[in-house]
Amino acid sequence: MTDAIVTRALSKHYGSKCVVNQLDLRVPAGSVYGLLGRNGAGKSTTIKMLMGVVQPDCGEATMLGEPIGDARPEVRQRIAYVAEGHPLYNWMTIGEAARFASAFYEKWNHRLVDQILEHFELSPRAKLRRLSNGQRAQVSLALAVAPEPELLILDDPTLGLDTVVRRDFLESLVQIIQRRGRTILFSSHILGDVERIADRIGVMVDGVLRVDAPTDYFRESVKRVVLEFRGAPPEWPSGVPGVVSWRQVGPTLELVTVGFDAAQRSVAESLEPIAIDVLELNLEDAFIEYTRGPKRSLPLFSSESESDPRVGRQGAA
Fold first, then answer.
1. Region label for 174, one of left (φ > 0), alpha (ψ between -120 and 50) or beta (otherwise)
2. What beta strand segments (E) does the chain contain?
3. Using the 8-state DSSP alphabet, how is residue 243 labeled?
4. Per-residue pLDDT tens digits for 280-303
5. Predicted TM-score (pTM) of this structure
6. What is the C-alpha separation between 185 and 204, in angstroms, rounded?
7. Domains in the chain with CATH codes
8. Closest to 205 in 3D by CA, of 18, 54, 60, 3
9. Looking at CB atoms within 10 Å, which of 49, 178, 303, 317 has the fewest?
10. Contact between 4 and 16 (Cβ < 8 Å)
11. Residue-wise pLDDT tens digits, 112-124
């Protein structure tokens, strides 16, 4: 099995609004896949469909090789899920929550739970209702990894956590990732977190998967190009493949491009600027610049881009 998760034309409507549109997603086994997008892009709905919490209107999905609606219990036990907000039974203690959850699994690593709780300095006797948001996230992580799942799915697991707790959570997650054969799919609004641990990303825009590429490739491909002029800059010609957006700022023309190839440079030089600067972006800036571009003309990143970096710049969608 080469893919832990595969979806084909997975779609979901709420009323007249299509929140997930014909989603074709592949998460390679053993990878750490970050699912990104602005609020309302369809990330959480996608995860909820995968987990059976929300029923798709059409399309299909498999996890660990089995259809999500018909997965056998022994397959479901190999999948762990941490929901947004870390819902837990508040009347329980941490120890009671662990014993309750363990009853649903044939395989449960009690020692691992104890080690994680000790690392986070959490007492099994502590009441869940008295925990901070960060501590609830830590307990959720311990319960999720205790069955030693092959596939771990996390919906915005660090949302609302302060910087120190978030860093500690991620470092613990990295240690878990390093366990042999583990696959992780997680959504997040914090791009710095994604950049630290994800080796591949998907970016959803208005329910459509616009990017499926290695994290480094996406970051390195999206560039800001600044053309400087002596006076007011001209308008950028329409229809140039790979250009996400452009704007005039004083005597400069600023472009956001997927790559900056010879064709784009030729068009830029034809405008006769006095200088052309190509600026590298970090993942957060690349994500912001890409997703705030004109949505109907976003260049697509193909999943094939990992094997051929020339693929994935397909011009207008």
1. alpha
2. 3-14, 17-28, 32-37, 58-63, 66-67, 79-82, 151-155, 183-187, 200-205, 208-214, 222-228, 243-249, 252-258, 275-279
3. E
4. 988 888 888 888 765 545 566 655
5. 0.84
6. 14
7. 3-206 (3.40.50.300), 218-306 (no CATH)
8. 18
9. 178
10. no
11. 899 889 988 999 9
